[in-house]
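Usage example:
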Amino acid sequence: VDDELIRRAARGEVEAFDALARDRIDRLFAVAVRILRDHHDAEDAVQQALWTAWSDLPGLRDPKRFDAWLYRLLIRCCFRAGRSRRRRLAVVQRLPESFEVAVAAEVAGVEARDALDRAFARLSTEHRTVVVLHHYIGMPLDEIAEVLGVPSGTARSRLHYALRGLRAAIDPAETIEQTSEVSR
Amino acid sequence: MTNDPRSDALIRSWIEAGPDAASAEFVERTLRPIPRMRQRRSWRITLGRLLEPLPLMATAATLIAVVATGMALGGLLPRSQGPGGQASPSAPVVSLRPTFELLMGEGPSARVYRSDPSASVATCDIDPDGATYALYAGGEPFVSIDLIVGSGADETGGASRVAAEITAGDTYVRFDPAILRGGDRAGRSQATVIVTTDGPATTFVVDATTPDRTSGQDGDPIQISLTLTCQP
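Running the assembly step on the lines above writes:
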């Protein structure tokens, strides 16, 4: 059904694109807000990604690649938003209160939540992206590599590095191991 | 490095928590302008689609026909004559694209933004009733402009018939003093537009004062000067 919608949207049928976009916009927003940790930046990134998707859709040859292509557009927009925000913020921006409350309900212990929050904030946009795509969307590393336009090994090492940082934030043993790795 | 399943479960639940739905207002704000946006259709895409199902010989014949048609249109072959001995006129397809200069703020802290020719979204549509819709998104720093100039804006008493939503770098503003899109309360913002036409190009000079909306709530007023030209 989606393939037909994608073909129709590529031929310029606004209703078809509207249906595709409405079906995906929540997921796109959820990914963007986790990568960027800012509602306004996330909305900007999703809006730009969907507008570009509509504009460039006639150039997509394989409808089966639509979702991967859309994520690629979104990630590009997130990187751009991330770069722009880094320039304008000298301090780490905290998550909106609603995010923190929701997290608090899920994660055992305020300390662990705060520690993860801080550790995630210290990661680059590129590293956050791999964590979110892999652990939130459940995207395989090979597909992440394709979406990001990097070799599989790079995606794998980004995930490894990011998870090491997050684990270290909540696991003292990991911290000790990390410290000793650094000192070597 | 340890891979403690408890740590990973904690990380996963932390990532999964949080907002997972966009607001209805945002969904509408994003999807509403799409019917007014053009799709990019390069000649390569169009030609590729035309040729895809054809066998090799037919492909070659089609290519020759396309080239011959192009040469005829370009005046390299004798033109076919329509009734009365004149070349058949065809309806011109006019695609308008906006260029702009945007000034946000006043004095030394004012920022200037200009349109980027490679922006992915850049369209001007003029309704039969004379209203103009300009959409732009692109550039570095990123700028998006969604501008409506209502019909009659160039007539006496019509200068306030302008509304816009603008993101420029770090700043987000919107204004709609004439309630063209129903998104402004009376007195929240002031805006005027001067419309001038020069051949196929129409220029809109917009001056507005509206609250800075970057934080999601109305902040201090900010001065905006936008000169946008729609031209082929």
